[in-house]
Amino acid sequence: MNVPFLDLRIQTAEVEAEVMAGVQDLLKRGDFVLGDGVARFEAEFAAFCECDHSIGVASGFDALKLIFRAMDIGPGDEVITTSHTFIATALAISSVGASPVLIEVDPDTYTMDPSKIEAALTERTKAILPVHLYGQPAEMVPLLELAKKHGLKLIEDACQAHGARSDGRRAGSIGDAAAFSFYPGKNLGAFGDGGAVTTNDATLAERIRTLRNYGSAQKYFHDELGENSRLDTIQALVLSEKLKKLEGWNIERRAAAEQYTKQLCGVGDIKTPTTRKGAEPVFHLYVIQTKRRDELQEHLKAQGIDSLIHYPVPVHLQKAYSSKGWKKGDFPQTEQLAGNILSLPVFPGITDAQIETVCESIRQFYEKNVETGQAQLNF
Q: Comparing C-alpha atoms, which of 116, 156, 118 is closest to residue 137?
């Protein structure tokens, strides 16, 4: 049985009729940019995230960038984040002229290690940017305490965590502001690019609304140098329909993760995801660790099973950041993860049979290694 890494057709089929009806209505109205559908989705998403404001923008990257701009974070400033993340996290900091300051993640949860924060602080530090990576919410309570203690902004990169909770609070409602991505493969994905900022700060929300629209709160009157970063109405319609399904889809992801963890427990040197106490992940990705990652991935590929690596090159080793002087060995924990992590198929609609196929293939890989006398490696 072939198993795809992701099958968006299942989700699309569940909302296709409603989306097409909405598009037909939109074609009659013609409010394609910042139309009524955008305002409606913004209100719905704010309610879902249990916060006061949601502002639709063009992407998750733009959501982060606009948060920094609205907070007046720019040249000469520093933002603390992690090296184990998608590069957009760091690029958004760089895009406003600020500098990313990288720290290690917890090797079990893949999220920011709060114990590393204070050693990274300087007089130029303006914000802490934890990433709710793979749908695992960061440990926000100590981060809130640190931000308050040092007078820093706390910004959530929630681009992979739609619906996750940290100690009872929704991702996107905990820090001063949060960024979400609606890239098609996300737990809540559009039919193209899209993003949103969530916040409980009315003043910040209003400034981001202005910045996303050429710095204009009133048409043809421009109060500052803004940008064109607006969520299209058609994407807002798609997201509104998908949002109705999101809780159920996240439940399916958790169930799939539970099946994987149960079946892979004790298999070879595999380390399954760890959920810390107080966290409610949404498993945007199901990521295992194994020192035989590359061999295992090739084995799965030969069996018709797709898998991916998120992310093979840490931020500090990316060529784009070579001018920073970071080098191999600077973040050993992150580098070890980059060499060991493998993301297995997980998506709403994945079947028990598909999960069993993946797990059986993994078991066969390790059984073959035992038969050939190859040693089992443990973390």
A: 156
Residue 155 belongs to what H/E stretch?
strand 153-157
Contact between 310 and 159 under an 8 Å Cβ cutoff? The reply is no
Closest CA relative to residue 89, chosen from 271, 257, 311, 245: 311
CA distance 136 to 164: 7
The arithmetic mean of pLDDT across residues 150-159, rounded, is 98
The token duo for 214 is: 């050429």
Six-digit token string for 204: 């910040």
Using DSSP, state whether 31 is helix, strand or coil. Answer: coil
pLDDT tens-digit readout, 338-355 = 999 999 999 999 999 999
Q: Are strands 286-289 and 341-344 parallel, antiparallel or unpaired?
A: antiparallel
Q: Which two tokens stand for residue 284?
A: 């945007």
372 band by pLDDT with thresholds 50, 70 and 90: very low
Strands (E), 25-65: 53-57
Instruction: For residue range 311-332, list pLDDT tens digits in order.
Output: 999 999 999 999 999 999 999 9
Q: Is 309 helix (H, G, I), strand (E, B) or coil?
A: coil
The two tokens of residue 206 are 């209003």
What pLDDT digit, counting tens, does each position of 82-114 carry? 999 999 999 999 999 999 999 999 999 999 999
The structure tokens 């305490």 sit at 145
pLDDT at position 279 is 98
Residue with tokens 């399954």: 272
Mean pLDDT score, 251-264:
98
Max CA-CA distance within the chain? 74
The residues with which 7 forms a beta bridge, in sequence order, are: none
Which candidate, 107, 106, 101, places its Cα nearest to that of 129?
101
CA distance 202 to 24: 34
